[in-house]
Specification:
The protein is an alpha/beta fold. The protein contains ten helices and eight strands.
Length: 269
């Protein structure tokens, strides 16, 4: 079982009236690191990493709107809107600047924040990111979701989540991952995937001047090595760390190594 006894949980009311569920671990006066999960996950997708992070850091993982235990308001659920939520969350937390860690879908949200408010971002750590959100795999998922029944079939959620990892993860952890994904209503599975496929920030990436670290598994079935090289060539201050025999979710599959790489990167800023 994942021991979350020293994780603090709270709800954050944004200035927009949206309530985000959050998990926090570490020193409240430490360097703030904000974790932004992927699709269709929740804060829990970072739980194994949070438990490996040194307590000197202030680690905060959010459930984005619609996901996990956060509010599900009627809205566009665009990447821009998710980015605005993160900026509002930093305001509500009284954090001037933070390191943003985004996984997959969440990496595009983190990039959006760095483009809109570069003064709020100390650095970016992008896990399993893509150059753009649209590729053959994401379009295939988008197409399949059009006929998705309500409620979401548990087997579908299980099959999708298992397809994103290459290395085995603890069964209890994976079971919770599936449970968390089923909190996302069927209509939002479709709408949020549409937002990812339609999003293209490539013309603005060169504006991101903060240090950036890309973490990528060489068995990633969603975003390719070419994606990583394209992002690296566009961001002025970015570097890539590759995990061998690892899928799309290094934060699930190699939490100790991911936590160590994040800590080392942040410590060197």
């Amino acid at each position: 079982m994942i021991d979350t006894s020293d994780v603090r949980f709270f709800d954050l009311l944004l200035r927009t009236g949206v309530r985000l569920h959050c998990a926090e671990r570490g020193d409240r006066d430490g360097d703030p690191i904000l974790f932004i999960h992927g699709w269709p996950d929740s804060w829990f997708s970072f739980s194994r990493v949070l438990l490996q992070m040194h307590r000197r850091f202030r680690c905060i993982a959010v459930d984005q709107r619609g996901f996990g235990d956060s509010d599900r308001p009627e809205s566009t659920y665009s990447i821009a809107e998710f980015g605005d939520d993160i900026i509002a969350a930093l305001d509500a937390l009284a954090i001037d600047r933070a390191v943003l860690v985004g996984h997959s879908f969440g990496s595009f949200v983190a990039r959006q924040v760095a483009i809109l408010t570069p003064e709020r971002v100390r650095a970016l750590i992008l896990i399993g990111t893509g150059f753009v959100g649209s590729n053959q795999t994401t379009r295939e998922v988008q197409h399949f979701l059009r006929d998705l029944p309500d409620p979401i079939p548990i087997q579908f959620a299980r099959d999708f989540q298992s397809s994103t990892a290459y290395r085995p993860v603890p069964p209890d952890f994976f079971g919770r991952i599936v449970t968390e994904s089923l909190k996302l209503p069927p209509r939002l599975w479709q709408r949020t995937m549409n937002s990812l496929v339609e999003h293209d920030d490539t013309q603005h990436l060169a504006q991101i001047a903060v240090p950036a670290l890309l973490l990528w598994g060489d068995r990633d079935a969603l975003f390719s090595r070419r994606d990583q090289e394209s992002v690296i060539s566009t961001l002025p201050a970015a570097r890539l760390t590759v995990y061998e025999e690892t899928g799309h979710c290094p934060n699930w599959e190699r939490p100790e190594q991911v936590a160590a790489d994040i800590a080392d990167f942040v410590s060197r800023l």
